[in-house]
Specification:
By secondary structure, the chain is mainly beta. The protein has one domain: 6 Propeller (Neuraminidase). The protein is built from 2 helices and 25 strands. The chain is globular and about 55 Å long. InterPro entries: 6-blade_b-propeller_TolB-like (IPR011042), Glc/Sorbosone_DH (IPR012938), Quinoprot_gluc/sorb_DH_b-prop (IPR011041), TAT_signal (IPR006311).
Length: 421
């Protein structure tokens, strides 16, 4: 959805009602409080599931500041320091203990226009034994017009005397086709339980809203979730690898602009949060080979109107509905960055999905039950950090402490830490 939403102040509504507990429980506010793919928030007026994490006290600390539109954050296993990307093209290493910031040399040149630039960062799951660090970013290609989402990797040794640097960094994948414009690059990267690298790619703001849209065209790698090997090749077990007319890297399609992605440790399932057109933001359980509907099925409005953009998912055959969504007229939840909480600092939140929102300016907390794209249910709870007026770009859990870290989307932004009060 758009980065601003004049219709509804979601934070005011949430404070007035004591938290977002679902459309069934609060019918008078259903328009502003989201919906669900399969009655996960109460059914026919039933009360929502109980929330053990409702009364957790926390404090907020500044870890470091002065970042220019930070986009991705990731901890280095066995080291404790935090990698931070900034959209204009800088990669930094932050020591959470004292806030020291060191620039990491060797980052790629990026197409830093519009929503493009240096985007996400992920660390190889066997780090430091395998010292590769992965970046997603938008870039052009010599001799061609336009840009696309790239994946690159380089090794980050930490025993050098000349400051941190990515060694041998190179692009290992570029989503086809390249397109002009500067919107909807995605892009999150995360490793699955089997070591495969998942990457979300936006639809590059294709406005050909019909069955020929790039998100519905399996020959492209746009508007899709890709599954790659750690070397950047298409995963050999991808669903369309035997289809000569489909892109080998494709894992799922029918996406608009997924900017949050996380693996649920209890099930190993891949989850995404995706921007709608106007409202219509979604939380999806992403499964192999599925079509998630964009733009032939959507819960969004047409920009500037209250008119549904397309038939709803449950009115369209052959598409997979979101497990949670913000319907047309709701004010939406434009998402960026997500993690399933698995730390020790906040045991009441263990297993919850934490997702940042941009225009609504808070950190969302969602309790999750059930499994699968059809069986999972989601309940949004009282927002975190709702008094900060921060656009939440990325979120991560510190392995050693279980503290939560958030990157704020601003031209002069902090990295903040949430700790028990």
């Amino acid at each position: 959805m758009a980065d601003s939403s004049p219709r509804i102040d979601r934070r005011t509504a949430l404070r007035a009602t004591g938290g977002l507990v679902g459309t069934g429980a609060l019918p008078a506010l259903a328009g502003c409080l989201g919906g669900e793919g399969d009655d996960g928030d109460g059914e026919d007026g039933d009360d929502p599931p109980p929330d053990d994490g409702a009364d957790v006290d926390y404090a907020v600390e500044t870890v470091a500041e002065g970042f220019e539109n930070p986009w991705g954050i990731a901890f280095l296993p066995g080291d404790g320091r935090l990698l931070v990307t900034e959209r204009p093209g800088r990669l930094s290493l932050v020591d959470p203990a004292d806030g020291t910031v060191e620039e990491v040399a060797g980052a790629p040149e990026v197409f830093a226009e519009g929503q493009g630039g240096l985007l996400d960062v992920a660390v190889h799951p066997d780090y430091p034994d395998d010292g590769r660090v992965y970046l997603t970013y938008s870039a052009t290609r010599d001799g061609e017009r336009g840009a696309t989402t790239h994946v690159g990797a380089g090794r980050l040794p930490l025993d050098g005397d000349d400051g941190p640097a990515l060694e041998g960094f190179e692009a290992i994948f570029a989503a086809e086709p390249f397109r002009e414009g500067a919107n909807h690059f995605g892009s999150r990267a995360t490793f699955g339980p089997d070591g495969a690298l998942f990457v979300s790619v936006g639809d590059r703001r294709d406005t050909n809203f019909g069955p020929d849209h790039v998100s519905q065209d399996r020959s492209t790698e746009l508007g899709a979730t890709l599954r790659l090997t750690p070397d950047g090749d298409a995963h050999p077990e991808n669903p369309f690898s035997d289809d000569p007319d489909a892109a080998d890297a494709l894992y799922s399609y029918g996406h608009r602009n997924p900017q949050a992605m996380a693996v649920r440790s209890e099930t190993g399932a891949l989850w995404q949060c995706e921007h709608g057109e106007e409202d219509g933001d979604e939380i999806n359980v992403v499964e192999r080979g599925r079509d998630y509907g964009w733009p032939v099925a959507s819960e969004a409005c047409r920009y500037g109107t209250d008119e549904p953009f397309a038939p709803a998912h449950d009115e369209r055959e052959g598409v997979t509905a979101p497990v949670h969504y913000w319907p047309c007229g709701s004010g939406g939840f434009p998402p960026s960055g997500a993690v399933f909480y698995d730390g020790d600092a906040f045991p009441e939140w263990r297993g919850d999905l934490l997702a940042g929102t941009l225009a609504a300016q808070y950190l969302g907390r969602f309790t999750v039950a059930g499994t699968g794209a059809e069986g999972a249910s989601v309940t949004e709870r009282e927002p975190l950090l709702a008094d900060r007026e921060w656009r939440m770009r990325a979120v991560a859990v510190e392995p050693a402490t279980g503290h939560l870290y958030v990157a704020v989307d601003d031209g002069d932004a902090p990295i903040a830490r949430i700790v028990p009060a």
